[in-house]
Specification:
seven-stranded antiparallel sheet; 569 residues; alpha+beta; GGT_ssub_C; binds glycine; hydrolase; glutathione biosynthesis; 3 domains
Length: 569
C-alpha cells in the first residue's frame, strides 16, 4: 500500500493528543474537541460532533440501550450541528436488536398535500431548480420527530431523560468550531435573503471558532416535544408556528400535512456478502438497493483478487457504480406510489448480465450504458452509529438535504426546515442538486416520499453486529458505503484506513468520475488514459464506522474530513 499523505498522519497525531484530552473532559460544551478514534469495550457512538457523541455515550453509561443513545444523539445533533442535524428534516434508522431482530424506521419527509407533479416548472415547461432547492417551496413535511417516537418502542429510558441534554445545549449554549463558524458566515446572505425573520445564525459580526451559540427558541420547541411527545411538534404551538412561517413565505405545508405525517416501520433489506449479512435501508431510500447491486456485482467479478485503488479495481467499481445509478434513475421511487421491481434488480441473474458490456482497460460511457432490461416482475445529511454492551446497534442517517436545508428557520421555533423536495425528479432528465436525474418513478405527488440515497447499514457476522457504517453525501452515500465495506471485507483494510483513504464516485450521469483531491495521481492518470473524465472533489462523504473486533473490543472511527468524533467507554 502506498505511503499515507502527510496531512493524514498529522490528523492522526493531533487526534491521538485530543483523544487523551477528550477522555478526561467528558461533556463540556465550552471546551471540547473531536476524537477521531476510540477503542473501548462497553459501548460507542460516532457522529458528526463530539458533544453529540458524548451525549449518546452518557446515556449508555446511565443504563440506556443503543436506541436510547441514538435518540439522544439525534436530538443533540439537531442543536449542535444545525447544518444537517435536525428536527425539521427526515431520515432512516436501521436497528439490530440483541434478540436478533432487525428493523428499519423510515421517517423520510413527504410532499405536502398541495404539491403537484409540475410545481417547479415555469409556463414554458422549464425546471426552476432554485424553487426546489432554496426557500419555502423546497420544504417536505418533516419526519424526524415522528421517527424518534417510532424508535421509542425499542428504547428503555424515559424520553424526558433522552431529550434533556439537547435542551441544555440549546438553552445554555455551546462553543462552535471553526468549520461551523465558516459555514454560518458562508450562508449569511442566503439566510437573510430566504427568511422573513432573521434567524439566530445571522449576526452583525463574523462568527469565529469559540463563539457561543445559544438557541432559546429551539430549546422551547424541544421542551414542547418533551412535554407533549410527537404532538409537541406536529400539533399545537410548533405546528402553528410552522404553518404561519409557510404563510409568510408562500410555502404550502399546512397544519393538516403535519398532523397526518406517519413514519413507517419497514423490513430492512438484507443480503449475504461472503458469509456475512448486510442489513440496510429499503425504499424509500435507493441506498440499500444500490449497495446490494454493487456488492453483488463486485463479488461476481472477484474484486477480492484486486487491490485497493489500483486502476483495475477503481475501473471495475466505477463501471459497477455507473450501472447501479442508471437503474436508480429509471426504476426507483416511493414503493407506496410506484411498482419497483426490487427482486429483479438485486437478483444474481440480472446483475450478472449488467456487466456483460464491461471492458477492462477501456472506459465505459453513460450514452451506451442504460438501465437494465427488466422483465415484468410478478444528501447535506449526517450519519451516526451506536452500539451498546448488550449487542444492540443502530445505524442512522438523517438529513435536511442541502447544508442548512431550505435555509428557512421557523420564526419563534428556532429550527431549520429541509429542502428535500429537490430529491424528487422535478422534470425527467433534469439533474437535482446532486446531479442525479430521475424519471416517472420519482415524480412528485402529494404525500409521496422523495427518493433518497441514504444508506445506514449494519453488517452482521454470525447474526451479531460486526460493522456499523454510513455517511452523508447525497448520491455519493451508497458508493462511499460500498467502498468502505469492500475496503474492509475484500481489501483487508483497517476501519480507520477504510474511512479516511480517498474515495471516488460515479453516478451514471453526469458521465464523470469524481475523485477526492487526495486520490493517487498516478492511478488518476491511468484512468484518464483509458477514457474517463476525471473531476476532482475536495471531499466525498464523512463516513463513520464502528467495528466489533474478534474478542469483543469496539473500534469507533470518526471521519477525518470533518469535526466527526467518536466516544465510548
Ligand atoms: N437528501 C439526500 C438523500 O436523501 O439522499
Amino acid at each position: 500500500m502506498k505511503e499515507p499523505p502527510l496531512l493524514f498522519l498529522l490528523v492522526i497525531f493531533i487526534c491521538s493528543v485530543q483523544f487523551t484530552y477528550a477522555q478526561q473532559s467528558n461533556l463540556n460544551p465550552y471546551n471540547y474537541h473531536p476524537v477521531k478514534q476510540i477503542i473501548c469495550r462497553n459501548g460507542a457512538v460516532v457522529s458528526a460532533n463530539a458533544l453529540a457523541s458524548q451525549v449518546g455515550v452518557n446515556i449508555l453509561k446511565e443504563g440506556g440501550n443503543a436506541v436510547d443513545a441514538a435518540i439522544a444523539t439525534q436530538l443533540a445533533l439537531a442543536v449542535v450541528f444545525p447544518g444537517a442535524g435536525n428536527i425539521g428534516g427526515g431520515g432512516f434508522m436501521i436497528v439490530h436488536l440483541k434478540n436478533g431482530k432487525n428493523v428499519a424506521i423510515d421517517f423520510r419527509e413527504v410532499a405536502p398535500g398541495a404539491a403537484s407533479r409540475d410545481m417547479y416548472l415555469d409556463s414554458n415547461g422549464n425546471a426552476q431548480m432554485h424553487l426546489s432547492q432554496d426557500g419555502y417551496l423546497a420544504v417536505g413535511v418533516p419526519g424526524s420527530v415522528a421517527g424518534i417516537f417510532a424508535a421509542m418502542r425499542y428504547a428503555r429510558l424515559p424520553f424526558k431523560k433522552l431529550i434533556q441534554p439537547a435542551i441544555d445545549l440549546a438553552e445554555k449554549g455551546f462553543v462552535i468550531s471553526d468549520a461551523e463558524a465558516k459555514s454560518f458566515n458562508g450562508s449569511k446572505n442566503e439566510f437573510i435573503k430566504l427568511n422573513t425573520t432573521l434567524p439566530i445564525f445571522v449576526k452583525d459580526e463574523v462568527w469565529k471558532a469559540g463563539d457561543t451559540l445559544v438557541q432559546k427558541d429551539l430549546a422551547n420547541t424541544l421542551k414542547r416535544i418533551r412535554d407533549n411527545g410527537a404532538k409537541g411538534f406536529y400539533e399545537g404551538e410548533t405546528a402553528k408556528l410552522i404553518a404561519e412561517e409557510m404563510n409568510r413565505g408562500n410555502g404550502i405545508i399546512t397544519e393538516d400535512d403535519l398532523k397526518n405525517y406517519k413514519p413507517i416501520i419497514r423490513e430492512p433489506l438484507s443480503f449475504n456478502y461472503k458469509g456475512n449479512t448486510v442489513v440496510t435501508m429499503p425504499l424509500s431510500s435507493s441506498g440499500g438497493i444500490i449497495l446490494e447491486q454493487m456488492m453483488k456485482m463486485s463479488v461476481f467479478e472477484n474484486i477480492g483478487k484486486m487491490k485497493f485503488e489500483t486502476p483495475q479495481s477503481v475501473q471495475l467499481m466505477t463501471e459497477i457504480e455507473r450501472r447501479a445509478f442508471a437503474d436508480r434513475a429509471k426504476f426507483l421511487g416511493d414503493p407506496d406510489f410506484v411498482k419497483v421491481p426490487v427482486k429483479t434488480l438485486v437478483s444474481d441473474a440480472y446483475l450478472k448480465k449488467r456487466l456483460r458490456d464491461y471492458t477492462p482497460g477501456k472506459a465505459g460511457n453513460s450514452k451506451d450504458t442504460k438501465e437494465g432490461v427488466i422483465n415484468v416482475e410478478s444528501d447535506e445529511t449526517t450519519h451516526f452509529d451506536v452500539i451498546d454492551k448488550e449487542g444492540n446497534a443502530v445505524s442512522e442517517t438523517t438529513t435536511l438535504n442541502g447544508w442548512f436545508g431550505s435555509k428557512v428557520v421557523v420564526a419563534g421555533a428556532g429550527f431549520l426546515l429541509n429542502n428535500e423536495m429537490d430529491d424528487f425528479s422535478v422534470k425527467p432528465g433534469v439533474p437535482n442538486m446532486f446531479g442525479a436525474v430521475g424519471a416517472e418513478a420519482n415524480a412528485i405527488a402529494p404525500h409521496k416520499r422523495m427518493l433518497s440515497s441514504m444508506t445506514p447499514t449494519i453488517v452482521l457476522k454470525n447474526n451479531k453486529p460486526w460493522i456499523i457504517v454510513g455517511t452523508p453525501g447525497g448520491t455519493t452515500i451508497p458508493t462511499s458505503v460500498y467502498q468502505t465495506l469492500i475496503d474492509i471485507i475484500d481489501f483487508n483494510m483497517s476501519p480507520e484506513d477504510a474511512v479516511n483513504w480517498p474515495k471516488f464516485h460515479h453516478q451514471w450521469l453526469p458521465d464523470e468520475l469524481y475523485i477526492e483531491n487526495t486520490f493517487d495521481k498516478n492511478v488518476a492518470d491511468e484512468l484518464r488514459k483509458i477514457g474517463y473524465k476525471i473531476v476532482i472533489k475536495s471531499g466525498i462523504g464523512r463516513t463513520e464506522v464502528i467495528m466489533v473486533k474478534p474478542g469483543g473490543s469496539l473500534i469507533a472511527v470518526g471521519d477525518g474530513r470533518g469535526d466527526d468524533s467518536a466516544a465510548g467507554y
